[in-house]
Amino acid sequence: MSVPSLPRRMACWVYEGLLMFGVVFIAGYLFSTLSQTRNALDNRHALQAFLFVVFGIYFVWFWAKGQTLAMKTWDIRVVDKSGAPITQKRALLRYVLSWIWFLPPLGISWFLGLPGTEAAVLALGWVGVWAVLARFQAQKQFWHDAWAGTQLVTWTAPERSRKSRRKTEKAA
């Protein structure tokens, strides 16, 4: 099992962010419908907490199964240090630790009262630095993976055998 390259992992990361727009849209619609929120600024802290939980459910569920949709696209799989699938408990730990990608720049931006553009530049800079720091980790993994006892590996689905393909064709 080889470690995916940093550009490939970051491309997967960006693609995951794009896919999360759909999750945010559906979860936001559900939240605003159930809470009868009429203004986007009403209940915003409750919405943020709700999205944190929804994201947690999404990632923990898919990581415990091995891959998210973006990870499947980029042939990346999350496993434990021995190469076995991770448990939901370990996936939850990975989810909590993965917030290190966002919390430091968000906290600094809030503390300094930075406007949105400066906060975005700070966040992008932090993401770049944090990604490059993976090069200094012994197995070239992201630090939150090292701390959670997980690793990202290159993985492609095995081809189905000729026998199972015949069964599928006969059933159709």
Q: How far apart, in Å, are the first and last alpha carbons?
A: 35 Å
What share of the residues does DSSP label as strand, in percent? 5-15%
Helicity range: 55-70%
Q: Which class do the helix and strand fractions yield?
A: mainly alpha
Mean pLDDT: 90
Number of helices: 8
Major sheet characteristics? 2 strands, antiparallel
The poorly predicted ranges are: none
Outline = globular
Question: C-alpha Rg, in Å?
Answer: 19 Å
The order of strands across the largest sheet is 1-2
| Element-by-element helix/strand order | HHHEHHHHEH
Strands, total number: 2
Describe how the helices and strands are arranged.
Layout: H1 6-35, H2 44-65, H3 69-73, E1 76-80, H4 88-98, H5 103-112, H6 116-132, H7 143-148, E2 150-154, H8 162-171
Helix pairs in contact: 1-2, 2-4, 5-6
Can you describe this structure?
With 172 residues, the protein is mainly alpha-helical. Helix content is 65%, strand content 6%. The protein has eight helices and two strands; from the N terminus they run H-H-H-E-H-H-H-H-E-H. It has a two-stranded antiparallel sheet. Helix 1 (6-35) packs across helix 2, helix 2 (44-65) packs across helix 4 (88-98) and helix 5 runs antiparallel to helix 6 (116-132). The chain is globular, with a radius of gyration of 19 Å.
In short:
65% of the residues lie in helices and 6% in strands. It is mostly helical.
